[in-house]
Amino acid sequence: MFNKCLGCGVRLPSDARGRGQHRRHCAKMKTAALAHTLRERQAEEARERELRELEQAEREIVDAAQGMHMSNDEWRESPSWTKHRSSTNMFGLYREYPIKPQRDPEEKEPPLESACDPIAFGVKDAHDIQPPIQNPDNASPGSSDSSSDSEDSIPDPPPWAPFPNVSTCDMLSWQNNDSNSKSNAQINLLTRDVFQQPGFNLADLAQFDAAREAQRLDDYVDKVDGSPLSAMDGWMKSSVYVRLPKEGVSFASEEEAPIFTISDVWHRSLPQVIRSALQRPGMKTWHMIPHKLFCARPSQPHQHPSHSASPSTPHFFSQSTSSSSPSPSSSSRCFTNACSPSAGSPSRSPEPREDTRVYSELYNSDAALDEYDQILEQDREQGDPEDLEYSMTIICWYSDGTRLTNFGPASMWPLYNYFGNQSKYERVRPSLYPAHHLAYIPSLPDLIQDVYTEIYGIPATAAVLTFLKRELMQAIILLILDTDGFMYVYVHGQIVDCGDGIRRRDFPRFFIWSADYVEKVLLACIKYLARCHCPRCRINKDHTIGLGTRADIFRRNKLREDNDDVIFERGMPLTSVYIDRLLGDLSLTPTRSAMSLRLRDHGFNHYSLFVPDFLHEFELGVWKSILTHFMRLLYAAGGDKIQLFNKRFRQVPTFGRSTIRRFSTNVSDQGKLAARDYEDRLQCFMPVWEALLPSADDRITSDLTFDCAMFLSLGKLRYQVPETLDSLDDAADNIGSDVRTFVKKTCKKYHTVELPREAAARGRREARLTAQGKNSTSTKSSGVSASRKVKMFNPRTYKLHALRDYACTCRMFGSTDNTTTQTGECEHCRVKRWYERTNKHKHVGQIARHTRRADKLNIVQMRVDGWRAKLCAKKYGDKRTKMRAQHANIPVPGTSSEGIVGCSPELHYHIAESRRNPINIPNWTYENKGDTALTDFSINLQTHLLARLADRSIGPLDGPDQDSAEFSFSDHSRLIIHHSQMYPHQILRLNYTTYDLRRCQDIINPRTHGDIMLISGAPLDEYDSSSAHGFEYARVIKIFHVNVRLADSQMSAFERMDVLFVRWFRVDHSVAGGFKAKRLYRLEFTPTDNDDGIAFGFVDPSDVVRASHIIPAFAHGRTEHLLGPSVARDVAGQSQILSPDDAEHTDFRYHYVNFFADRDMFMRYYGGGIGHRGNARSRALETAMDDEDIASEWQDIDPDLAEAQAAEEAYAQQIAQEPDALLRLVPELAGDAEDGARTAALFEEAVRTHTATPTGCDLVYDDSGEPETSDTADSDEEFKHDAGNEEGLDVVDQDGNQVLDEYDLEGYAPP
C-alpha cells in the first residue's frame, strides 16, 4: 500500500528504513500531522461513542416497554388503520389516505400568497416574508430607544443565537445572501432589511468583526432537544479505497489485491440529515403520509374543446377516469407493467370511476403508496404506542459534475438530497434551501498512475482507469449508506420529534436518482452506448427505431442481475472475450452496485431509481438532434434557406415574463444554448419552418415538429390525469412513426453533411488528439479536414427509446418535474457562487462550510422573523400596523396582501390610477381624420360603454335597436364622458389561474405584448364541429380609461371605466387547424370592409382571458390591402417590421396562434385544466376561473357586485316613477330639458364642452381645469422598465435584480 508523509505530504520511500528516517527528520511531522491525526482519531471515537449511545438508548426503550407491545394484528384492528378521506377544496380536489394522518397539511386552505408567482406578485421567501416596519416616533434606527421595548419580549435563548444581538444577525444574513456583487439593489436591501428593521441598533456593531461572527456561527451547537441545529448534522471528512486489478495477475481473494486510498471525502450523515430536516418548523407543509389525489367529477359533463366552443371546460371528465397504472406488490418498482399493451393502449380505462385520479407530487404517487403499504404490513417495533404514527421519508438524490468557472480546471461533483415529502413548488426554489448537500464526490487523483506503476511496473490502461472510476463512485455510496447506522434506520426507522409537534417513527426510502445519461450509466453499472443502452430494460439499441410499435412495448422489461467476481480471483482482463460473453447481453460492467449490495435483500431494485430526465433526454436530446438535422436539410436544399430561416426567427415576437425571449440573430448556429433555448425554438418552430422545403417534405417535417411540441407540452404538465398520460403515450408513438417516415422518405432525398460548427469542432478535436499523440490519422496542418463528413440522422439512441417511458414514470412517480434534473441544476448556481467566496485552494472543504453556514443562517433568520412579527403585533397593534404599512406601501402581516407588492392577486386585472397626459377624444380623432381605425371612434366608444352599463342594469336604457344593433339617440344623449377625455396607460396587468391552481400574471403592453384572447361569444351551432373555435383574438392598440355618468341613473358621480381599443383577428376556417390536423390555428386581420364583423372595437379588460402569442405566417408574406397608414400600426411590435418603408403601410397576411407558448396556454386549448374549470362563455366574462362557489380571494370580480346591481335596479325603478327626479339629480341638464330635444350636433357639442362637476364627484381639478394627480396614485412610471422592454430580454424583480428564467436556473419556472 502506498503512503505519504502526514506532515509535508511527500511520497515516502518504499522500504521501512527509509520511511522511519523521513519521519524522524520531517519538521512538520510533530506539528501539523500530529494534530491532524489526533483530530481525526478524536472525531472517529466521538462518532463511534455517539452511535453506541444511540443504540444503547433504543435497546433500553425496547426493554422497558416489553409489556406495552401491541401486535401488528391488534394494531390493524385499531381505529388508526382505517382509511381517511379529506374534505373537498374549492376546485374539487380531495385526498384519500391509507390511514388517518394525525395532521393533514392541506386540510386548512393555504393562503393565496402560497400559490402566487413570486416574481409577478413580489412574494418573498419564507425567511423574510415579514414586513420591514419603520421604528415609531421618528426614532433613528441606531438609537437605543429602538430596542429598549423589545428587550421585554426576548425569549431565552434569544432567537438570534448564537449572535450577541439581532443587529449582528442581520448583518451576517445580508453578507451571506445569494448575491456576490453588492449592487445598488443590494445596498437598498441593506438599508431596508437591516437598518430599518425593528430592534436594529447601530451601537451593537461597535466591535463588529465579520470573521469572528462567522466562526461563532460555525461553532454553534443548539443544545435544545429537537433542534435542527445539531452537531451530528455537520460535515465529516473520511477516506475510501479502491482495489487495483491487473490483467494476468490473480489473487486468492479480492481482499488481497492492492488498494489505493482516496482521502478528503467530504460527506454528511444521512440519518442526521433526515432528522434535522424533520425537526425544522418548515416541515409543517410536508406530507408524511402518502395518499391519492382525486378531482371530483363536475355536475354536468363537458365536451372536448375540439368539438365544443368552450375550450376551457375539462374534456376528461366525460371520459373514463380510472387509473391505468398497476399496483406492484413489491418495492421493485416496475416500468414494464405500465408499458404493457393493457396499460399502454388508448383504451386502458375500461372501468369508469366516479372521480379522476390526479398525479402531481411524489407523495401522492403509486410508488409512495406501495412503499408505505409495505411499511404498514411489517410488524410494529416493540414498545411503540398505538398513537405513534409511522411515516415515510421520500429520498430523492441528484448528482452531476459541474464546472465552477468559465476558465480553469476547478470543478465539483456534488450529491444533493431532496425530500419528496416537500412540495415540488418549493423544491424548485433554491432560496428556500430545499437541497441538502450530502457529499462531494472526488475525482480519481492523477497520482493513481504513479501508484499503479510502482506496484505493477506499468501504467494503468484506459480500461483499468474506467473500472476504478466506477469503483470509486460505488465506494462513496457505500460510505454514505454505512455511516451512523443508516441501514438500521432503513429497516427499523427512527423516532423523531418533528417540527409540527408530532412524534413519529420515520422510515427513509429511496425513490429517484436524477442524473444525465452519462451518470446513469455509471451508477447503474452498465456500459456507455453499448448494445443494451437502457438502464431500465434490456432492449437492443437496434430495436429503438421501433418506438411505439407493439413489439417495442413487449421488449421493455427490466431483467438485470448482479455479476459474479471474476476480476481479482481469476485475473481476467477487463476487455476479455470471457467477460464480454458473461456480461455483454445486458451490457453490464464488472462493478457491483452499492445500492444493490445494501438494499437488494430488502426487496429493492436499484434500477428503478434511474427515471427518464426530460431536460437532458428530450430537450437536449431528441429535439436537439432533430433540430440539428433540420439545419443540415436546409444546407442541403441550398439557396437562401438558412438566411431566410434566421430572418424569420428574428421576427418572432416575445411572450410573457421571459417565457419566450428574443431569438438570436443566427438561430441555425446553435452555439452555447441551454435547454430552455431549445424549448423556445420548438414552441415557435412551425410558423418559421413553413414552406422552406418542398410540400411533401414540409408536411412530414411539420408533423414531426407538431408531435414533438405535443410531447413537450404534455410531458411537462405539473398536473397529470389518466387522459393526459394516455395522450403522452400516443404522442411518443406518433414521434416514433414520424421518425420512421422521416428517415425513410425525407432523409434519403438529401445529401446531408456536417454543419460548419460541427466541422470546426471536429477539426479542433482532431488537432488536440494529434498534439497529444493519440490520433493515428493524418490531418491538415490547420487541424480541420478538407471536406465536411456525411452526417445521417441517427434514430437508434437511448433518448428516443426513453420517450415511451415518461407516461409510465408519471403514473409511478408523479409528473416529470419530480424527476427532472432541472432542480439539481438550480442548486449548482449556489455552489458556483460559494466558490467565488473561497481562496480557490482546497475549495471543497470551504464550500462545505459555506453550505452549512447558509443553512444555519436560514434557520436563525426564520426565528428572528417570527420574533419580529410578534413584536410588531404587540408593540404597534393591528390598526396602527396596517395604517403605517399602507402609508409606507409595504405588506401587512395577517392581511390578504401579506408578502405581495404591486397588483393584488385577488383582482382579475390592474390598470394604474394615473390621470396624466389626458387626450381629448374629438381633437384626437380630428387630428387623425382619414384613419380607417378611428372611423366612428366616439360613437363606437359610447356604444361600448352603454352596453357595459346595460349589462349592469344601470338605466333605464332603451337598448340596441333590432335593425341596427345600436343604442338609440336618446341613450347616447344620456351618456356623459367627462371633459370628453380619455386617460392613456402603458400597461395592463392581467391575473389568471393556471391549470395547476397557481396564480400568475400577464403584462399587456401595446408596444411589445399586445395580443390578447377572449372567450368566444359565438353560438355553439354557428359553425360545424370541424371549424368550431372557442376563442376570439385581438391586438391591443391603446389602453385607457374614461370617467362617465349616465344622466338618468343613480350614478351621482363620475365612474371610471377601463377600456381597451383593439384590432380584431378572425379565424381562417379555410385551412384546418388544431390537434387533429397537427397544425396551428391560422388567423387574419378582420378586413375594414368586412360585412360580417368589425375590424376595430373596444373590449372590457375583465373579458380578457390571457395574453396570446400570435406569430406571423412568414410564408404568406405581407399585404397593404388590409389597412393604410394608421395609428393602429404605430404601436405594433418589432415582429411587424420588415423594412422602414413596408412596415408603415403593410401587415402580415396571416398569423398563427401559438398554443404551445406555455403549459397553461396549451391546456386552455387541449381542455381538462383543473384551474380552468367552469369558465363561462358570455358576452361579458366576469371571471376567467371557476364560476362555482369559489372563495372571495380567488374571484376575479367584485364580490359585492350583485348587491350593487340590485341597488341600481331599485333606483332605476324610482327614477322611472318620478321623472322630475332626473332634473334634481343632474341640475346642469335642466336648461336642456326646457329647450326640448337636442339634435345630434348639439349632443356632440354638449358632451364635448360639458364641464360642470356634480356634488359628490370623486375628481379634483386645479385652477387650470386639469385633474390633479395624487401623490399616492398608482402610476405607470413604476412599470417603465416593462413598457420600454421592447427586446423582451431582461426582467427585474422589486429589488432591481435581474430575474433569470427556469433554464437559467433561477426564479420561478413558468407553468
Description:
- With 1311 residues, this protein is an alpha+beta fold.
- 34% of the residues lie in helices and 12% in strands.
- It contains 41 helices and 29 strands.
- Strands 15, 16, 17, 20, 21, 22, 23, 24, 25, 26 and 29 form an 11-stranded antiparallel beta sheet that branches.
- A hairpin with a 7-residue loop joins strand 1 and strand 2.
- Helix 19 packs across helix 21.
- The longest helix has 36 residues.
- The chain is globular, with a radius of gyration of 35 Å.
- It starts with 15 loop residues before the first helix and ends in a 28-residue tail after the last helix.
- The C terminus is likely disordered.
In one word, what is the shape? globular
- Count of strand segments: 29
Structural class: alpha+beta
Strand content: 5-15%
Number of helices: 41
Low-confidence stretches: 65-69, 126-151, 300-352, 562-569, 778-785, 879-901, 1019-1027, 1133-1141, 1176-1205, 1219-1311
Helix content range: 25-40%
- Please state the CA-atom Rg, rounded to the nearest Å: 35 Å
Sheet bearing the most strands, described?
A: 11 strands, antiparallel
Distance between the termini: 56 Å
- Average pLDDT reading: 76
Question: Quick summary of this structure?
Answer:
With 1311 residues, this protein is an alpha+beta fold.
